[in-house]
Design a protein that fits this description.
single chain; mainly alpha; 0% strand; 5 helices; elongated
Amino acid sequence: MSGPGRPSPRSGSFFVSYIAGCTAIESAAPTHRDLFQIFGASPLRRLWLLDVPSALPALVTGLRQAVPVAFLGTILGEWFGSAHGLGLLILSAMENFQIALLWSTVILCCGLSLIIFVLLGYVERIVGRHYR
């Protein structure tokens, strides 16, 4: 949850997702669009049956790229303006010379981000095979 004094990972990852979404929605082949127009499909039907399936691979790629940005943004937000969280734990360990706690927290954050990135890579591969 975001609010006063709480970090919002949406702000950092919004632009990555937005660019991926804008380029993805135009990824359908022009010949397929023409075919839908010839058959008299409504714009909503064309969006649901052509544009969204064509855009899924690029949207998943954008999501995969946005996860590390959101994770880093959350940690930095906690570092600068939160009363709890991993960012504050890193800062506290650094100020108190608790090197083992500092590096274990940093490695934990990197590991979680990497695990989510790899899982979304598998999702990207499945979606790419199915919709390309």
